[in-house]
């Protein structure tokens, strides 16, 4: 069986050489960051570059007599889900922390702007004592409409969790997002950085004091599920939040927390997953930096899990068990597959950096895996997304001359309010959803869910699993692209 997968890997490497092209990683990076401006909620500034969008969601929070404007719509709808938005923010910040030096100065600025659009909102969600706001908008009502955000007249339900009710997952991820972002802003805006860190500590205290999943609350579950339920448990977000606070503060309190809570919080669980719900692989890579570069050997178990994860991605390794399509794309069952490709490629590059700094390799049993090998594997995923695939299709909208035209996205598919000022009601947008024409507004930088396990992609707006972009697909891709801007070969 291992021989079969090895030969399969060789076959898709041969295929890749047949349609490989030189990529403009800097152009792709610029577009990946620009995407976030098209996802903005709230009052849009004068320097807004995505001009088919306009101000929206200005009443968000009024039912609680609080300001919850701003933040991002997570995908092609008009709901602000706190769980994936916080994860998106963490990944954008990590991209800047790890690869900001590889970004052109203007794109580093644009990345910080993208992060701040999220953190300004996240600060609002933890602004009241013993309460965290976890979502704005009723997704069941919203998903029954097809209307641009500027017109939305659906219920803007606010979902809040008050202590002692539980929200360890969202609060823990919010703590991670604010802590990581505090590091991203440390040199350019130290005052804002301190504000972020102070609120990160507060968010983590809420997460740890009232342990449990936010979607276990009946009043939250009806809005969060089945869209962004906590499917994999809240424990990983506690470790994730503590790990980022350790890195941001260098406080031994968080180091001790990681050491003493690892077993009870499932540090050894599902090490081969990383995304908005399951943080285990990211936790292991993040904490491994303490072992590789800080010589804190009491955390060796996290490094061992990170090593195992990296080995699982190498087709030639005896412990390989990640599935690849024939065209070379990492594939995991479920929707929106490119979220796995972008997040895993990002982790490979981060881990490769730590290995390279310490001149180490990963022992995968039958072979040793170097930093360069991990970078090569990550580049295959990045290049596949940009067009080195059997379809010759860029899965990033606006990159190259061949990309998806009919993405599952309300604002992109309905005429812009700038071109069509007349109100388009909930069901009136259906004509645009059902249209066979390309979307009138090109959502530059949007990365769609991508092809299936057979590498097949049909440009179909109705197939949301394949054609819908999300913020958490793009966020780790920003860091991966930044690395290849500086290291294109």
From TrEMBL:
It comes from the Eukaryota. The active site is at 408, 459, 468. Its EC number is 3.2.1.4. InterPro entries: 6-hairpin_glycosidase_sf (IPR008928), 6hp_glycosidase-like_sf (IPR012341), Glyco_hydro_9 (IPR001701), Glyco_hydro_9_Asp/Glu_AS (IPR033126), Glyco_hydro_9_His_AS (IPR018221). Residues 1-22 form the signal peptide. One of its GO terms (biological process) is cellulose catabolic process. It catalyses: Endohydrolysis of (1->4)-beta-D-glucosidic linkages in cellulose, lichenin and cereal beta-D-glucans. It holds the Pfam family Glyco_hydro_9. One of its GO terms (molecular function) is cellulase activity. Residues 25-481 form the Glycoside hydrolase family domain. It is an enzyme of class 3 (hydrolase). Keywords: Carbohydrate metabolism, Cellulose degradation, Glycosidase, Hydrolase, Polysaccharide degradation, Signal. Belongs to the glycosyl hydrolase 9 (cellulase E) family. This is Endoglucanase.
């Amino acid at each position: 069986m291992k021989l079969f997968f090895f030969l399969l890997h060789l076959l898709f490497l041969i295929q890749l050489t047949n349609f490989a092209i030189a990529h403009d990683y800097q152009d792709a990076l610029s577009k990946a960051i620009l995407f976030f401006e098209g996802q903005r909620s709230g009052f849009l500034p004068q320097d807004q570059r995505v001009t088919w969008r306009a101000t929206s969601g200005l009443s968000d929070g009024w039912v609680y007599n609080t300001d919850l404007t701003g933040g991002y719509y997570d995908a092609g709808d008009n709901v602000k889900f706190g769980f994936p938005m916080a994860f998106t923010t963490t990944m954008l910040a990590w991209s800047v922390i790890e690869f900001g030096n590889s970004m052109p100065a203007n794109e580093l600025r644009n990345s910080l702007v993208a992060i701040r659009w999220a953190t300004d909102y996240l600060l609002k969600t933890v602004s009241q004592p013993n309460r965290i706001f976890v979502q704005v908008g009723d997704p069941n009502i919203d998903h029954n409409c097809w209307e641009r955000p500027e017109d939305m007249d659906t219920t803007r339900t606010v979902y809040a969790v008050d202590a002692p009710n539980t929200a360890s997952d969202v609060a823990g991820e919010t703590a991670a997002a604010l802590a990581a972002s505090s590091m991203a802003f440390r040199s350019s805006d130290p005052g804002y950085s301190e504000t972020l860190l102070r609120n990160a500590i507060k968010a983590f205290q809420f997460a740890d004091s009232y342990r449990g999943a936010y979607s276990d609350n009946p009043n939250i579950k009806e809005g969060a599920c089945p869209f962004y339920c906590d499917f994999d448990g809240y424990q990983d977000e506690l470790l994730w939040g503590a790990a980022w606070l350790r890195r941001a503060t260098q406080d031994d309190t968080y180091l001790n927390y990681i050491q003493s809570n690892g077993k009870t919080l499932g540090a050894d669980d599902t090490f081969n997953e990383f995304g908005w719900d399951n943080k285990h692989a990211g936790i292991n890579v993040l904490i491994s930096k303490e072992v590789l570069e800080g010589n804190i050997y009491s955390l060796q178990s996290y490094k061992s899990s990170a090593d195992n994860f990296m080995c699982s991605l190498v087709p030639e390794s005896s412990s390989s068990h990640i599935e690849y399509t024939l065209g070379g794309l990492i594939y995991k069952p479920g929707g929106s597959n490119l979220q796995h490709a972008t997040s895993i490629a990002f982790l490979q590059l981060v881990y490769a950096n730590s290995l390279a700094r310490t001149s180490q390799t990963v022992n995968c049993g039958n072979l040793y895996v170097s930093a360069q090998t991990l970078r090569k594997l990550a580049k295959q995923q990045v290049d596949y997304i940009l067009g080195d695939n059997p379809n010759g299709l860029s899965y990033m909208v606006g990159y190259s001359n061949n990309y998806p035209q009919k993405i599952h996205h309300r604002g992109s598919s309905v005429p812009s309010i700038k071109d069509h000022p007349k109100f388009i009601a909930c069901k009136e947008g259906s004509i645009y959803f059902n249209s066979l024409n390309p979307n009138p507004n090109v959502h530059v930088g949007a990365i769609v869910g991508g092809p299936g396990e057979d590498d097949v992609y049909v440009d179909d707006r109705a197939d949301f699993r394949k054609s819908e972009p999300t913020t958490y697909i793009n966020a780790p891709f920003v860091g991966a692209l930044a690395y290849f801007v500086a290291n294109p070969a």
